[in-house]
Design brief:
six-stranded antiparallel beta sheet, Chemotaxis protein chec, single chain, 8 strands
């Protein structure tokens, strides 16, 4: 399970250190891809497999299912960590979510989210201003 928020900086070679708290769970087969809401997702091999199994079971005739599958798979890349626990962020993924230098890693239970620091804080500020709406939605979901 991934929880917590960690701040890191891209180095001159476009690498960023993955937080130690997350590294042990990100085994071979983990995948980095375009996420939702302006961030990247890192899935463990198991979570990625479960998600792709669900996506494959959706009807090919459903445009939303096709679009979501494309969004995730067209930009997916295997996660590779060097001996120092750093990962290379591909240019296409950085461009999609506006990552320039300062990066936030945020644990989201079954995945890690990678955000540009400014975008992350803007998103969180927006969430904080909508707590009443969020409470109502969660109540409707039984939470």
């Amino acid at each position: 399970m991934f929880i917590g928020t960690y701040y890191h900086t891209l180095d001159e070679k476009k690498r960023v250190a993955v937080p130690k708290a997350f590294r042990s769970q990100l085994e071979s087969g983990s995948v980095t891809t375009y996420g939702l809401d302006g961030c990247l997702f890192i899935f463990t091999a198991d979570s990625w497999s479960k998600l792709t199994d669900k996506l494959q079971s959706l009807p090919l005739t459903n445009k939303a299912a096709r679009d979501f599958l494309r969004l995730l798979t067209f930009n997916a890349t295997p996660l590779e960590l060097d001996t120092y626990g750093r990962m290379l962020l591909p240019d296409n993924l950085k461009a999609l979510v506006g990552i320039t230098k300062e990066v936030v890693f945020a644990g989201a239970l079954t995945r890690v989210e990678i955000w540009d620091k400014a975008r992350y804080h803007a998103y969180i500020d927006g969430l904080n201003s909508q707590t009443g709406e969020l409470e109502n939605t969660l109540a409707e979901l039984g939470i």
